[in-house]
Write a structure and sequence with these properties.
Layout (H helix, E strand, L loop, with lengths): L1 H10 L3 E18 L3 E14 L3 E6 L2 E13 L2 E2 L2 E3 L3 E6 L10 E10 L2
Antiparallel strand pairs: 1-2, 1-8, 2-6, 2-7, 3-4, 3-8, 4-5, 4-7
Length: 113
Amino acid sequence: VQDVENAAKGLLGPEFKEVALGQAEVRTTFRVPRLGVIAGCMVLDGSVRRNSSARLVRDGTVVYETTIASLRRFKDDVREVNQGFECGIGLEGFQDIKEGDIIQVFEDREVPR
């Protein structure tokens, strides 16, 4: 019986659950040569991590889903920025960032079946 159960678990693909890491509000934007548009943000809650999944929300509507390509604090490249700090966020493949947009950061975690 246990062998059949283990085989069935192997046949079923992994199940993922979205876990919110944090969100940041776009305060201003910068155009940087070779990088495109960078969002000058304030982290409102949680933390923002480089290479995490991100969702750009404008007026309550999801505009784009992508990953965080670059994350800077002043001139330094950083891996993570926590709540209450300002940072510059570059989104992978998206340039139409506007002041007032919200960047929600999340990751998909595998859930055992």
